[in-house]
Amino acid sequence: MFIRLLSLTAAVAVLATPAWAADYKLGSLEIDQPWTRATPPTAKAGGGFVTITNKGTTPDRLIAVRSAASDKVEIHEMKMDGNVMRMRELDKGVEIPPGATVALKPGGYHIMFMELKAPFAKDAKVPVTLVFEKAGSIDVAMAVQGMGAAAPDQPKH
């Protein structure tokens, strides 16, 4: 009886566990964990983050991002220049090499929302369209984490 109950409990746990699949899929691209941070009421800008994996055999490139949440959206890079942190727009976007995963994350490549139309509120979703050179466009929803979040809340295993 105990073994049967243990087996049933294990089966329920497996069925209740979220799938570890991509959040979004576009051709050979897998788009995981699109997220952003909550912004203060007077903020004019915010950052967006996402992980993109190219399961294909040819490179692709994230060339643009659009969102109704702000007047302007750009793909940026932050990097150290000596002791100074510099941020710049990437005119040609970000390459996603075949077989590689590229993370747009705090302190590196990221999406820059400028002239926000309203603050990003914790637990809301920000609609975004990611535009790729070869794969085309896909609409995703960025989950808004708390101000200063380092990454989205991860499921516990």
TrEMBL record:
Lineage top rank: taxon: Bacteria
Record-linked SUPFAM superfamilies: DR1885-like metal-binding protein
Keyword match Signal: yes
Signal sequence, start to end: 1-21
Keywords, alphabetical: Signal
Keyword Coiled coil: no
InterPro entries: LpqE-like (IPR007410), Lxx211020-like (IPR058248), PCuAC_sf (IPR036182)
Record's protein name: Copper chaperone PCu(A)C
Organism: Reyranella soli
